[in-house]
Specification:
Length: 293
């Protein structure tokens, strides 16, 4: 397709987030009608209902032919979200992904870093249902010491048609579906009507919980959550100036590479100045695409 200008059952709150009216919704009938709907969609996402597991499997197996980006599918809802790779969509997550590659290269670790692209992560079928899969916008993992990484350690998701609650559903499920091998999920949400970009860094943390019993016993539960929110607003000046409402975006080296940093290595830091330039580039693509229409 050309470039256009809980592990298991979904939680009730997550299911509700996936049935909002934030993007066009169609009912699946056949592949030809689906492709026409994708080509006619006004944004970067399309919701498709009535997608049986058999249909999803056929679409998934036909990816190399049809190039349909199957962003998220769950069997219990039979709902499929498709990503449409518009110029603006690719910019809002892609610049961040490329920035990470550049930082890794500057540390001399280019040969120890593997780009995994949009490789699908599948949900294991459980007795309660909920099988399916998610295809990220971009992903990557280390490659060193002979270890084979089944899943990426970082995933990037971006967009402007999906709401943040919809994107957060996907973020939470990456941790569960990868059996906690995904360590960081970066969400980047473009809000054109407000000239605003929101970036969220998701990681898992341990949350203590008290276990029942005659003695006081405490265990721990690993739960995903948003650890940092960055809001970038345009101030309306001409030329525009971008205000970053946060500190630097920091990606933990230990989470990315699953080891301690050595000399010359360290956390990947996207400075406030870098984030301002990121916003300039994203909105340039948005405005240029509008002018071309």
């Amino acid at each position: 397709m050309s470039l256009k200008s809980t592990r298991g059952v979904l939680r009730p709150a997550d299911r509700a987030a996936l049935v909002t009216d934030s993007m066009p919704t169609i009912q699946f009938t056949n592949l030809e009608d689906l492709i026409r709907a994708i080509d006619a969609a006004p944004g970067d996402a399309l919701r498709v209902t009535n997608v049986s597991p058999t249909v999803y499997k056929a679409l998934d197996e036909g990816y190399e032919t049809n190039k349909i980006h199957l962003s998220m599918y769950t069997e219990d809802s039979q709902c499929l979200i498709i990503t449409i790779p518009t110029l603006e969509h690719e910019a809002v997550y892609g610049i961040l992904s490329i920035g990470l590659v550049s930082a890794v290269t500057l540390m001399g670790l280019a040969n120890n870093w593997k780009y995994r692209g949009t490789t699908t992560i599948y949900s294991r079928r459980s007795s309660g249902g909920g099988g399916g899969g998610q295809q990220p916008d971009a992903s990557a993992s280390p490659r060193a010491d002979g270890r084979i990484y089944r899943f990426p350690t970082i995933i990037f998701e971006g967009g402007y048609s999906q709401t943040l609650p919809e994107m957060r559903v996907k973020a939470r499920r990456y941790f569960e579906m990868s059996e906690h091998e995904v360590k960081i999920v970066i969400l980047s949400k473009l809000i054109p009507t407000e000239r605003r970009i929101i970036i969220e860094r998701w990681e898992e943390r341990q949350r203590g919980e008290r276990r029942p019993g005659p003695a006081t016993r405490w265990g721990s539960e690993i739960v995903p959550g948003c650890q940092q929110v960055i809001t970038i607003n345009e101030n309306g000046a001409n030329p525009p100036v971008y205000q970053v409402d946060s500190d630097d975006l920091v990606l933990s080296f230990r989470l990315l590479f699953q080891r301690d940093p050595r000399q010359g290595e360290g956390d990947v830091v996207f400075s406030v100045a870098w984030l301002r330039e990121y916003a300039v580039q994203v909105w340039e693509d948005w405005d240029q695409d509008d002018e071309a229409i």
